Amino acid sequence: MATVIGVSNTALAGEQLERFIDIIGTAVTTGLKLPPELRSVHLYQLPKETSTKKSGEEITFFVYTAPNKPVDAKRDLVKNIQAAADDFFQSSGPVKTIVIIKEHSDENVGVGGILRLDN
Fold this sequence. Notes:
Layout: E1 2-8, H1 14-31, E2 39-45, E3 57-65, H2 71-88, E4 95-103, E5 110-111, E6 114-115
Parallel strand pairs: 1-2, 3-4
Antiparallel strand pairs: 1-3, 5-6
Helix pairs in contact: 1-2
């Protein structure tokens, strides 16, 4: 499973927003070699006037996943996210992505009121 929380200065809406979320989800599951259904992606868009001025789009992705992913998978994850953002925003100019990977063990995750360790 990979849970992705993105924070951006973008202004996407409707079908465009849904498509971007799906593209990022695919980039994450492909990079980490996970089945497509093992993802949860959320994008929070903040107005540009509430953040430091940037020359283009900037998106920070926090990726939460189980531990012990190989370094090559993490490299693929970061590369896939950047490529997906570049492809999606190609007509808008450069996009800067920041990816922060947070691995967590089953003793630190609860789902439906049960620690994953106990499931």
